[in-house]
Design a protein that fits this description.
The two termini are 28 Å apart. This protein has one domain (6-105). The chain has helices spanning 6-26, 30-43, 47-75, 83-105. α2 (30-43) packs across α3. The longest helix has 29 residues, at 47-75. The protein is built from four helices and no strands.
Length: 106
Amino acid sequence: MMMSSPGGAESAGASDHATRQKDLSSTPSNVAEDSAPASASLSGESEGDAAATIERMRAELDALRAQETEIVRLLGSASREKILHDVRNLLNEVQLLRYLAEREKS
């Protein structure tokens, strides 16, 4: 598994995060507010409950993004898109090392 320098992965992750934030900010802010009353009336929730749900979901999304950023940094991944690939490689390497260690014991 190729490991990039921590600074390189972090700066790539930071720019990717900035791009995602930009994408979200380019979405009209009234989309969530416009859909909240409709979904609230369908589910029986008040507008206040729907707004609280939206805020909770935004906070959860922020926490997940922070975890993703930390994973990218720890793995030294070149990009967020390669996280799963890098984790699979890491697991394969661990499995191989365990096999070799067991083989040496025999």
